[in-house]
């Protein structure tokens, strides 16, 4: 099982790398690519073709800031699920959020919160868990631990 993490500039790296950390914890193979629909459109098409057809990637996480066309353009080239991460490069990230979430009918991008690449990874894991039962088990365990830790940390045990 493989996931691609694609982002528009090396300036997005710190935010987007958090997705890889979570995927790694779940034992999911991933590859990071810095690609831009605006700056290297031909290269983007080339890589997309390869990652789906030759490398068997099953889900794509795509992050970009400013006029964030990258996730939408990626979605237009593939039927793999694309999860968009709006990045705060200006205007608090609102420009990017709106660019990513407001896709025209037929080409959706599942959009998470601004800078929330962690949730993008989580959603990709949930999507893959439909196909891989061992992943579903790990997710259920993750949720159980999260709940227990929340109860412990917030003092709810005593309540
Ligand atoms: N939105 C896009 C695209 C695209 O959509 O193709 N390519 C780069 N970018 C974004 O531009 C911002 C500034 O990039 P630089 O820091 O390289 O100038 C980054 O957040 C990147 O994702």
How are the SSEs ordered, and which strands pair?
Layout: E1 2-7, H1 13-25, E2 29-34, H2 41-53, E3 59-65, H3 70-77, E4 82-87, H4 94-101, E5 110-111, H5 117-129, H6 133-153
Parallel strand pairs: 1-2, 1-3, 3-4, 4-5
Helix pairs in contact: 1-5, 5-6
Pathway: Purine metabolism; IMP biosynthesis via de novo pathway; 5-amino-1-(5-phospho-D-ribosyl)imidazole-4-carboxylate from 5-amino-1-(5-phospho-D-ribosyl)imidazole (N5-CAIR route): step 2/2
EC number: 5.4.99.18
Pfam family, one: AIRC
What does this structure look like?
The chain has 159 residues and is α/β, with parallel strands linked by helices. It has a single domain, classed as Rossmann fold (3-Layer(aba) Sandwich). 48% of the residues lie in helices and 17% in strands. It is built from 6 helices and 5 strands. The protein has a 5-stranded parallel beta sheet with strand order 2-1-3-4-5, sandwiched between helices. Helix 4 links the parallel strand 4 and strand 5. The protein is globular, with a radius of gyration of 16 Å. The N and C termini lie far apart (42 Å). The model has no long low-confidence stretch (mean pLDDT 97). The structure holds ligand C2R. Ligand C2R binds next to strand 3.
